[in-house]
Amino acid sequence: MDEAKKKLLLVDDCEVTLLVEKVLLESRGYEVQTVSELSAFEDAVAAFQPDVVLTDIQMPEASGVELCRRLKQTSRQLPVVLVSSMDEVELHALAQQAGADGSISKAEGMEALGEKMDALVRMLWMMG
């Protein structure tokens, strides 16, 4: 990216998924921090001050939808993107209901995830 590195906070209960996504997104020029336990989420947001939060939907402590809603109550300006392997149309509808700023389906594979993340980040910064 031509600007300073955008900071992404990835939230997922699966450590392997976090590692794969972190490596992929760092290779695309992002600064990435991960959180696997929701109890550490608020501290990570405060300390890391991400530009975007990407959260998985299905997690044991709370869903990504619940996390998005909570975050939007306290910080409407921090973009939240829901990430899931569910169908894109269903995921998009769920993201709109949750107040998320976008959604990315993992169903198309990791390279598509990186490309969609690039496009979404560009769109969010053009709007903001």
Summary?
The chain is of the alpha/beta class and 128 residues long.
Summarize the helix and strand pattern as letters.
Answer: EHEHEHEHEH
- In whole angstroms, how far apart are the ends? 17 Å
Rounded mean pLDDT score? 86
Placed side by side, the strands forming the largest sheet appear as 2-1-3-4-5
3D architecture notes:
- There is one protein chain.
- This protein has 128 residues and is an alpha/beta fold.
- The chain has one domain: Rossmann fold.
- It has 5 helices and 5 strands, in the order E-H-E-H-E-H-E-H-E-H.
- The protein has helices at residues 15-27, 41-48, 64-74, 88-98, 110-127; strands spanning 7-11, 31-35, 52-56, 80-84, 102-105.
- Helix 1 (15-27) packs across helix 5 (110-127).
- The chain is globular, with a radius of gyration of 13 Å.
- The two termini are 17 Å apart.
SSE arrangement:
Layout: E1 7-11, H1 15-27, E2 31-35, H2 41-48, E3 52-56, H3 64-74, E4 80-84, H4 88-98, E5 102-105, H5 110-127
Helix pairs in contact: 1-5
